[in-house]
Model the fold of this input.
Amino acid sequence: FSMDGTPADCTKFALGHFASYGLEVTAGHGPGAFDVCFSGVNVGENSGVSSLYSGTVAGAREAALWGVPGIALSLRGMNASLLPVAIDFAVKIVEKRLFENIPAGVFWNVNFPKATAETFKGFKATRMALGMFTDHYSHNGGLWQLDGDKLWDEQPVDSDDYLLNQGYATVTPHRIDQTDEKSLNKINEMIAGGEW
Done:
């Protein structure tokens, strides 16, 4: 099947509405059950803070919201030389049922570097880099255009941005629940103290 929409829209439709075609598509049972959802392969990286803007990552996040293991796949750069590596990775995830290692409420964000099959260094488990872009705007022909890049090598050495720039594919686990518990406790203290 195919449809037109954002990656999250496509995931939501597949998991929530395929049942109207006579398939039971809830996680883990029924003839149309989904074992895992891959979002991508996207051409363009979605590591670090890019993951916060990414439609590809949102597709994997949507799967996790439905209780289905979600994996976002993205290639850094506009060349697709590692596309076969990304596809082989997805096939192994299915064949070896590695998606069963993704806990409920978690999804994986996987990025492949600018590399050839010969210079590709393998996979690394990483944390999400928080470095921002070096944004700057130019005004041409009455339009404002955004340009910039990341400071790849200035990120923590165990982060997705840093290791992606070193030639590794990065596997970064993300959580659905983004609640900051420490701040939640502080807010409760303020409310209990009559601050508001």
